[in-house]
Amino acid sequence: MKTEEKSTLPAKNEQFTPQRPSGFLYWTLVPLAKFLSKILIKGRFERDPEIKKRVGPFVVLGTHTCIMDVAMMEIAMCPTRLNIVCGRDVFTWGKIKPIKKAAGLIPINQFEMDLGSIRVMKRAVDAGLSLALFPEGKFTLDGKNLFYLPESLAKLLKMLNADVVFMHNYGGYSSRPRWYSGFKRGLVVNKSELLFTKEQLKTLTADEIYAVLKERFTFNDNLFQQENNLRYRSKKPAMGLHYILYKCPKCGAEYEMISTEHHLVCEKCGNKVRYDEYGRFTPEGDSVSFDRIDLWYDFERESARKELEAENFYVSHPAVWAECDDENNYSDVGEGEFFMDRDKIGFKGKRYDGGEDVVIEVPLLNQFTIVHKNYEAVDLTIDRRINRFYFKEVKYSAKINILVEENFRLNHNLSI
Asked: What domains can be seen in the chain, in order of their start residue?
């Protein structure tokens, strides 16, 4: 069996300094975003007045709760234009391609060290540009912060030597959860804080900075909604929940859950739970449930962890392999088995063109999460080229994500 060698893409992104976002584009999109924040959600802003006392440049850090995070950040920092640091997959989006240069976007490999993009960020800040950075690298699935925040973030901030602003959208997840199509109209409060001045960064150690970051990057939108009794209006509040809540809490069956407009139902045992606009679960009859989405998701985490502790753990699923080319377009190039064991994750199969055997493997020791898609696919970025694997049975990406994260916990002795 041949191991496919991935060619390294030209390092052209490592050599440029991004331009400040176009004034025309900025002053067109930000007012539109502000309007939409009132229409799609009940957007509200609580700005730290200390931010206006600083001249920048800024590194603006945000949690990643929903699709409106970037727009809310741009509104809150107005008139400071932000160069957004985003995963390479964003550059494949049809609506982004025409404006990526004018927007001053900076691509980065998600969940791995990308020295080239770090150099670009440094040159941007040294040129007086301000950055928008979402260190979690992905939208939350369960309404909580990503369980692991890389310690290297503190070192990056010291190196960039810019004022640091922190933002979180309270209610963002409840208004537009990753598993839901559309918006649930309800209160979203954007709170900004001048976290560190560049002078403070020089006096603090990386450990001291990291401790502050860990505290700020801890949130639970499910609790925020329930404790404040907030309603997020929707005609179908439960639709899509089966994507992340795939395990029945009554019989333990996996991927037997279906979602309707108002319910999660297990097709194996009939367990039926209502999910309402206030983020509450109500079991019907003798059905079993958890009180919140994150608690149900934690139940799935515990189950996955037990699987990983088994000797000779191994999972695999039939998948179609797609590859992103130099023009940021995807095409299907092969099919086979997507697999995972305790040491590695990857793909074994054949190319369509010529039937060549292919093995793609990524070590898991320091892989703390993975890029996953709602349409049941996962990404592996190798040498800055995105490889996407679509599960033929149209399921499994949420569980693969959990398995990767729990495997990291086990490898590094982290508590759940």
From this structure: 14-227 (3.40.1130.10), 241-308 (no CATH), 314-411 (2.30.29.30)
